[in-house]
Amino acid sequence: MKKFLFAGLILLVFSSAFAKGPKNQYVRIKTSYGECIIRLYNETPKHRDNFIKLVKQGFYNGTLFHRVIQNFMIQGGDPDSKKAKPGDELGNGDVGYTVPAEFRDSLFHKRGMLAAARDDNPAKASSGCQFYIVEGKRFTDAKLDTLEQTKLKGRKIPAWQREYYKSVGGAPHLDQNYTVYGEVVTGIDMVDRIAAVKKNENDRPLEDVPMTVELLSKKECKQLDKILGPPAP
Fold this sequence. Notes:
CATH class: Mainly Beta
CATH superfamily: Cyclophilin-like
Helix content: 25-40%
């Protein structure tokens, strides 16, 4: 009896280790300009889970990247964009709820970050569906100093973040105002291509840029976890 109990215990431990899921969830965004893969952050669980829920529903399929600004960001996720006519002004569509802000000092607007759009509500709660991906630009120390004194109202950018903004680029004026909840791990060139398209006075591309968004399988997520390692700060 003891032998069977011991063998069963070993099998249980082995099965649990084998069945352990990936550490992170990844999503794939496909467009006619290419595709990218995004890692969702566990540090922002409300935004992560909400995004996963909408992707599972197929919510984003057929929505447009409706606002693009080169050297800044590309924005999408407006449900009204699915049936929008050419020239229609977009950006006001939503799902009827907001997501509480989840600001984290370690998550900032460097190039490639996924973040939630929002209106001017005082709580800085996020749109339930609209998001943007940072293309960004590089900054000098002098420009970051000026930014701290003006748009950041005296808030100091940590030295280690400054290094990213100088070498990689980003949009530092958005930090601690919009929730960052993911990061492009492959395919940032898709963002660059979309950001460079011709657009109208409302920053809407003249030719529609629809997307499809899908969750990667557990197997794919585990493979990426192994390849990429833990997220960089």
